Amino acid sequence: xxxxxxxxxxxxxxxxxxxxxxxxxxxxxxxxxxxxxxxxxxxxxxxxxxxxxxxxxxxxxxxxxxxxxxxxxxxxxxxxxxxxxxxxxxxxxxxxxxxxxxxxxxxxxxxxxxxxxxxxxxxxxxxxxxxxxxxxxxxxxxxxxxxxxxxxxxxxxxxxxxxxxxxxxxxxxxxxxxxxxxxxxxxxxxxxxxxxxxxxxxxxxxxxxxxxxxxxxxxxxxxxxxxxxxxxxxxxxxxxxxxxxxxxxxxxxxxxxxxxxxxxxxxxxxxxxxxxxxxxxxxxxxxxxxxxxxxxxxxxxxxxxxxxxxxxxxxx
Length: 316
Hints:
The protein is built from 13 helices and eleven strands. The longest helix is centred in the last third of the chain and has 17 residues, at 243-259. The chain folds into two domains: 5-201, Rossmann fold, CATH 3.40.50; 212-305, Orthogonal Bundle (Helicase, Ruva Protein, domain 3), CATH 1.10.8.80. The chain is α/β, with parallel strands linked by helices. Belongs to the MoxR family. Keywords: ATP-binding, Nucleotide-binding. InterPro entries: ATPase_AAA-3, CbbQ/NirQ/NorQ/GpvN, ChlI/MoxR_AAA_lid, P-loop_NTPase.
């Protein structure tokens, strides 16, 4: 799946810490190359924190973790101005959101007001405090987590915030063999302490610019729009994906093509990424929820239904 030599180095480096999750690591890097963010919904202890820490360490990024709690305030995330008695001036003390890689742990445990403080950061890569807008460092990547089991004392993420995440996916439990490998690796020392950066932030920024040059044919754009339109007309869906979903899917497909060493997007890129990019952007109707129909199943049905574009020439 990964043919780009530098991205492959990062994946292999992260795999020294996270066992058997190559697809999930690659999806996270695709989101980072696209300038997007990831929402992980999984049970505690499957390696979510270790994966984002390993990614941050592999690219030499400034890493911060925000542990979301019910009493967390927006200023605890974005930062606050503090009066300095020596200079008799207010000085801005940046919050943990001002980092290259941010882990927003258990994001659904904090109040909607604090969740809303992330909206501007996720969409605009900036925060506004005391009436002043401050740009965040580039690259800027947020990986948020939420526990799908414990709902007591949680606040469901509003659709506006879900829509800001490029991907939503799970890590899942390891196999017996993979879990044995985990035990062997951490027996004496945790592998996160043994890995070093294999990519610089400058390299990553260059690659983000190169991703935007990946060619997307008009037929591929039409294919994306057809899939998104089907989410709005599907009989299991109450609310379909917005145009932001179309943009997200196209940007992610450019990154996937880049990671695979291509200069153009193909339909298989769209088919592979659609469940991760669109599943969290649609709301099922009450009958589908009662029947335990998942958004992933709906998106896969749509992919099978929409006609795949065929062209004689794949590139310009």
